[in-house]
Structure formats: C-alpha cells, structure tokens
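FORM 7B: Structural annotation worksheet

SECTION A. Query
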Amino acid sequence: MSNFLNNIRGAEKKISLKRQIINTAAIALLGITLGALSKFLDTVPVNHLPALLQYLDVTNFLGRFAIWIFIAVCISIYSLSSIRAAINVLLFFAGMILSYYLYSTFIAGFFPKSYAMIWIGFTVVSPLLAFICWYAKGQSGISLLLSAGIIAVLFNMSFAYGIGYFNSLSLLEALTFLCGCVVMRRQSVIGTVIMIVIAVALAFVLNMVVPFYF
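SECTION B. Predicted structure
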C-alpha cells in the first residue's frame, strides 16, 4: 500500500491555472463537437452516408458505449492528476450530452427521455470512475488490477460471446478494444500479456453478472 501511495504522490503534477482552463475547455469542446456529430449522423438516412461510413456502421457504433468509454479512459489517464481526470471527464460528458440532446430537441424535433436519463446518470458517476481510472497507469499491483478491469469492460462492450460463439459487435468496436489494450499497456510485454489475461477472465465473470451489451 505504501508503494501505491508513493506512486500517487509521484504522479501528481502541477500546471498553471491558465493551462488547466485551456485544457479543460478543449476537452469540453471536444465533447460538444462529438455529441453534435453523433446526433447529426443519427438523423441522416444511412443510404445518404458515404459508402465507407455505411460499411463501418458508424452511426450505431457512436450510439453504443465502447467508443465513449475509451475516450473517457484516455482523458482520465492522460490528465495530470486524479482530480483533473474527474473534472475533465465530467465536462467532456456534460458537453457531449448537452449538444446531443439540444440537437435532438431543437433540430431533430424529439427528445428520447429514457435514453437521456441513462446518459445523464452515467455522466453523474463519471467523475468518480475517472478519478479511479487515473491510477491504472501506475506500476503497483492495484494499478494492474485497475487496468485489467478497464480492459475487461471494453472487452464486454466490444464482443458478444457465449458457449460456442464469439463475435465482434463491429470492426470499429474490435479496433476500439485493441486501442484500449495499447493505451493501457504495461511497461513490459509480459506485464501487458498478464493484464490482458486477467482482463479476459474478469470479463467472463462480469458477463455472467452484468451484460455490457450497450
């Protein structure tokens, strides 16, 4: 535990208030842009989209959780402190759902209340999850378990599996999972392999308790 706390203290960094504001504003703007883009693509008839976007099924991909979890994890672990991670992820999701549902209400002409409640609830708890995720890039055993937990969640959001079958929800989800493994990689190849093995085992356990097919 002492090593874990030392890793925490050593990883915390300070930046100027001006830079903090600029970074967080950029992340919030990213959320606003991606939220509006996601809703725009959702309202365009599929056969009006470029062939590549149709093939990749981008509209449904953006409507599921994997890509958003991956972006939030990246924001978390590359933030300069756990507190910064919580603030940045909160504002990213707040900007995303704000632009998405403003576009939905005032341009698309409808407001999917039940779906919105899911995203609002997720946004409320996202700072706590981001705060925890930030510590996954440490080198302690706890950090290894945290990183494996993140990969396990991405695994269950990217693949559908059971006795006798295993399928990717889409090519983009499979790529998202692989990118997650790269981002969360450990310092050594062996450490990364151990992380992935633990993650897959944990994913199977989680799948028996709570399916993550969102």
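SECTION C. Observations
The CA atoms of residues 90 and 125 lie 9 Å apart. The chain has one domain: 2-209.

SECTION D. Sign-off
Analyst initials: ____
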